[in-house]
Design goal:
four-stranded mixed β-sheet; 37% helix; 71 residues; 23% strand; globular; 4 strands; alpha/beta
Length: 71
C-alpha cells in the first residue's frame, strides 16, 4: 500500500512475474492485504491504478471490488 494524494485513501499495487501469473497468487495476496487494511483502518478507501490494456489486472481489481483508475 502506498499513500495516495487523497486523504484516507490507500493505493493497492502488485506485480507478478510471468511464471507465477494466472495462478491466483495476486488475488490471495491482495485479498489479505485489503482485509488487513479494512480491519486496521476502517475508514480507509482502497483504489488501484491499472493500464487499460492489462485485462488480467482489470479483472483482478473488479474481483477484489476496489476502485479502479485506468492509466
Amino acid at each position: 500500500f502506498q499513500n495516495s494524494e487523497l486523504p484516507d485513501t490507500a493505493e493497492l499495487g502488485f506485480l507478478i512475474i510471468p511464471a507465477y501469473q494466472r495462478k491466483g497468487y495476486a488475488f490471495e495476496a491482495c485479498k489479505i492485504a485489503i482485509s488487513y487494511m479494512k480491519e486496521t483502518f476502517p475508514e480507509i478507501h482502497i483504489k488501484a491504478k491499472c493500464r487499460k490494456e492489462n485485462a488480467a489486472a482489470i479483472a483482478l481489481c473488479q474481483k477484489l471490488c476496489v476502485e479502479l483508475e485506468m492509466i
